[in-house]
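Appendix C. Worked example: Phosphatidylinositol transfer protein SFH5
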Amino acid sequence: MWGVPLKHDATDVPTINVLIKFLRANAGDLKLAEEQLTKALEWRKEYDPLTLVDSEKKSYAEAKFGGLGYLTTYEREGKGDLIVTWNIYGAVKKIDDTFGDIEEFIKWRTALMELAVKELKLDQATTVIDYDGEDPYQMVQVHDYLNVSFLRLNPSIRAATKKTIEVFSTAYPELLREKFFVNVPAIMGWMFALIKLFVNENTTRKFHPISNGGNLAREFPGLTEKFPKAYGGAGPELEGSARTVALTKE
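Step 2, the predicted output written as structure tokens:
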């Protein structure tokens, strides 16, 4: 699970941390946590997400997903690295190409997620997560809707959004620290309503809409110099500096 071999060993810290995440996702209900863990393991067996992120085994069409997703890792003194995944929806060229094949979209989105999960280094944990305290093994997600003009209740986008929420809430619990929705147009209200139907209240508290993406860097004191200029920082733009999944030109 997330690079961690689950062991029948009460002293194995990485295993304990994985179990704690599933418990936290289910408010401490052991039965529900066990059911979700089982579903997540079954999903990983079916999808084999590690192959989805392996560039030698799987790549994705640049025309469909080029510029749409990035991963950055920012070093922080005394706090561990800040892992950020970026979804740039303004980079979508053709709606039907990107969202029409839901399974392919989920595989691409999973590949980006697995890149980020690897950066969390859960398998190298030496300290057990405090169930009621801060969890250092979490990431930040940014969804950017700048120049987006296609979100008028498009059925392909709604279906892909719904499926992504269902998969990720089951297979990747408690890996999200905060999610920022930046440059959000008013019409995006439907999406937040949809999300609330599929995630618990604790998760929705982590969601932060920001109308001006240039204000994002303010949310991360000490990292302003590293964040991309488009988001209020002084660092390089995502394209050309951030990591992404393997892409192929057709």
